[in-house]
Amino acid sequence: MLAKLELDARDHPTELPEGFDSYLKGEFPKHCQKWEGCTHLYFPVCSRSHWYAVEVDIAKSTMFIYDPDRSCSTDDQIRAELKPMTTILPMLMKKINIVIDALAIERITTTSKQSNSGDCGVYAIKYIEFLNIDRQAELVNGFHMLKWRRKLALELYTIDCTP
After folding, report:
1. Dihedral angle at the C-alpha atoms of 62, 63, 68, 72, nearest 10 degrees?
2. Any bridge partners for residue 63, and if so which?
3. Which of 145, 103, 96 is nearest to 121 (CA)?
4. What is the pLDDT along the chain (163 residues), one digit of tens a residue?
5. Burial class of 45 by CB neighbour count within 10 A (0 to 12, 13 to 18, 19+)
6. Which residues of 58-82 are buried (b: 16+ CB within 10 A; e: fewer)?
7. Which helix or strand (DSSP H or E) is residue 106 part of?
8. Domain Ubiquitin-like protease family profile, which positions (predicted)?
9. In sequence order, which residues have a C-beta less than 8 Å from that of residue 65 and are 6 or more positions away?
10. How far apart are CA 85 and CA 106, in angstroms?
11. No. of H helices and E strands in the chain?
12. What pLDDT score was predicted for residue 68?
């Protein structure tokens, strides 16, 4: 039999940890970038062993979902998974004087479908890379996938020199 887990307010602090404000503002560590001029945020999401990319357009107050295999998750499942982010991101951005209204979630359906079930993580990374340099995510497809896998492996290897 499972024991009932009792939670109280101490388990969920209402204030950010000391020093977190300076981290959010890009002041610490010293090599961080400032948030001034930031228009988009990008992050990968893994759900049920499937990866997809999220682009947050601050001006549009919208989270755009780039999913290389739209058969893995329904729109409702993605909305449920990202619901906490629609609350957390505006709260964090408010701490650094960036106002984001309630975040909408929009799934992009114009990207190509992955052909190999193990490529979703590389697709998510490439979507973020392409979007970050103002290229269309629709340009990411399976044609260069083997090359991109090798490039990513090499980049990871050269960071810490171990396979």
Report:
1. -110
2. 56, 105
3. 145
4. 344 444 444 455 566 677 777 777 777 666 677 777 889 999 999 998 999 999 999 999 999 999 999 899 999 999 999 999 998 899 888 888 888 888 999 999 999 888 888 899 999 999 999 999 999 999 999 899 999 999 988 888 887 665 5
5. middle
6. beebebbbbbbbbebbeeeebeebb
7. strand 104-108
8. 1-131
9. 52, 53, 54, 78, 82, 105, 106, 107, 108
10. 14
11. 4, 4
12. 93
| Spatial separation of the C-alpha atoms in residues 5 and 137, rounded to whole Å | 43
What's the DSSP call for residue 154?
Answer: H
- Tell me the two tokens of residue 52: 């997809």
Q: What pLDDT is attached to residue 7?
A: 41
Q: Which two tokens stand for residue 95?
A: 């701490």
With residues binned 3-state (H G I as helix, E B as strand, rest as coil), the percentages for the chain, rounded to 5, are 40, 15, 45
What one-character-per-residue DSSP string does 21-79 give? HHHHTT-SSTTPPP-TT--EEEEEEEETTEEEEEEEETTTTEEEEE-S-TTSS-HHHHH
Residue 34 to residue 20: CA distance in whole angstroms: 14
Place of tokens 């960071």: 159
pLDDT at 14: 62
